[in-house]
Design a protein that fits this description.
The protein is mainly α and 500 residues long. It has 18 helices and four strands. α6 runs antiparallel to α11. The protein is globular and about 60 Å long.
Length: 500
């Protein structure tokens, strides 16, 4: 593929990742404005935001599987259309139900359909790890920019115009992406289209829904001991001081996920098409890469959440000024992502993940050492900049390691799994931080230090996992490379079926 064609293909993919990441963070600065305008409560708007996260997390694996059935480009465009329709409904909402339908459900479903094809298309179109690293870096940088700039852009738009204008902006960008997507070309898919495993989709979605819901409930009830009564209707199911209801939700999610794995194992024994083949979990390199991905999103979202709350509650900054203070982290993510291709040409992906964690740890340590209540903006810059650089380096490399660990026929499945663990990490990061901030019985300002210290500990755990990734070209296991080579060998071709 020529450089010009590659640019035309990457632009819509990067924009789609940007808008999905933006939607996940910009709403937090407009909660009060939305509640007032729609004559509802802050809790109601927070519920809508939570449902968006739950919908996206629950449907990411089924959405990814549809790429093998509908085709990658078709699934990508379908997701954009659903997302855009949701944005229009949210823009015109006159009450909380319409906001939930448009934002929480349709934008969540659209995200689950359009995000997996982004990473699949890059993997199958660019066969070498170094080229993938370059374009994964572009997409990861766009995602990091969307997540980091969401509060800033959302705050500016809400303050200058209205919260509705933020949804209008999303609709316009999505319409532009749909036009750009006409330039996307994908390789023809060999073999038959699999059947959709509806039972597996329901079980996996239910399991992830309750698992993520439980993590999000920790902000209210705490992780271990319930801070308030847990009621259903007017009945107190778990009294204050007992075990947190978080574990009730997690247990329900675990039951559904266990049921899902038993269903998949039974289906594979009977030679049926399943939602997620179990062989994906037998790849050591991919498993460790998924582990680093989970922790990367955990510490990124958790640290951003800690910093944002600290700046607003301790320094009394508004949303716009908070976003500006976070700019060094955004610059770091973009700079590291822009250099991903150059880094991949010079260093193995495993080494880059390790280096990324090391730089991130140094950045977090600088934040703990330099920042004090009401200290100047300059004290934030070194730590946030290094934090952003470290995250940008390792996010791109982890995605590359995971996606490159499997041949083309498994790209739909591994992409959905990869996006699901990223969502799980994000939810766990904000949940842990929220729980620590409420539970920490320390003098003013110290709960934030405690929350950031927890994130630092997870970053060190991620570093250990990164060191355990097997050495190899690009971090990809030899068996995956051999399997891909066998599939492309003369005599092994099958008739190509273009499902795009």
């Amino acid at each position: 593929m020529t450089a010009e064609r590659a640019k035309k293909m990457i632009l819509p993919l990067a924009l789609a990742q940007f808008i999905a990441s933006y939607a996940a963070t910009n709403m937090n600065v407009a909660i009060s404005a939305i509640a007032t305008d729609l004559n509802t409560t802050v809790a109601g708007v927070q519920t809508a935001i939570t449902l968006f996260t739950l919908t996206m997390a629950a449907l990411m694996i089924p959405g990814s599987k549809l790429t093998d059935i509908w085709g990658r480009k078709r699934c990508f465009v379908a997701g954009l259309i659903v997302y855009g329709a949701g944005g229009v409904i949210a823009l015109l909402a006159f009450g909380l139900p319409q906001l939930i339908i448009g934002y929480s459900l349709l934008e969540g479903v659209g995200s689950a359909l359009m995000i997996p094809p982004i990473y699949i298309l890059i993997t199958v179109v660019f066969p070498d790890v170094k080229s993938r690293a370059r374009y994964f870096g572009v997409v990861s940088g766009a995602g990091g920019l969307g997540a980091a700039a969401g509060p800033l852009i959302g705050g500016l738009v809400t303050s200058a115009i209205s919260w509705r204008a933020s949804f209008g902006l999303q609709v316009l960008v999505v319409a532009w992406i749909i036009l750009l997507a006409r330039k996307i070309t994908e390789p023809a898919v060999s073999g038959r289209r699999p059947r959709f495993d509806f039972t597996g989709a329901v079980l996996s979605a239910a399991g992830l829904f309750f698992l993520v819901l439980g993590l999000l409930q920790s902000r209210t009830y705490g992780f271990f001991v319930s801070r308030t009564d847990f009621t259903i209707g007017s009945t107190v199911v778990i009294p204050k001081g007992s075990i947190s209801p978080v574990w009730l939700y997690v247990a329900i999610g675990a039951i559904f996920l266990t049921w899902f794995f038993l269903h998949v194992r039974s289906g594979e024994r009977k030679k049926r098409d399943v939602l997620l083949p179990l062989r994906l979990f037998r790849n050591k390199t991919s498993n460790l890469g998924l582990g680093t991905q989970t922790i990367q999103w955990l510490i990124m979202q958790g640290s951003f959440f800690t910093t944002s709350v600290y700046l607003q509650e301790v320094n009394h900054y508004d949303a716009v000024k908070t976003g500006l203070v976070l700019t060094p982290a955004t610059i770091g993510i973009l700079a590291a992502s822009a250099g991903a291709g150059r880094f991949a040409r010079r260093h193995p992906q495993r080494w880059l993940i390790i280096a990324g964690f090391l730089v991130t740890v140094v950045g977090m340590a600088l934040l703990l050492a330099l920042v004090r209540a009401h200290s100047g903006i300059a004290t934030w810059i070194p730590g946030l900049l290094l934090f952003g650089i470290g995250v940008g380096v390792m996010l791109t490399s982890s995605v590359n390691v995971v996606q490159s660990s499997f041949p083309e026929r498994d790209q739909g499945d591994i992409s959905g799994l990869s996006r699901s663990v990223s969502n799980l990490g994000s939810s766990l990061g904000t949940a842990l931080v929220g729980s620590v901030l409420v539970a920490a019985k320390l003098p003013a300002g110290k709960p934030f230090a405690a929350a950031l210290t927890v994130m630092l500990v997870f970053a060190l755990i991620g570093l250990v996992i990164a060191v355990l990734i097997p050495r190899g070209p690009g971090g990809a296991p030899e068996e995956a490379a051999e399997e891909a080579a066998l599939e492309q060998a003369p005599g092994n071709e099958t008739t190509a079926t273009d499902v795009a």
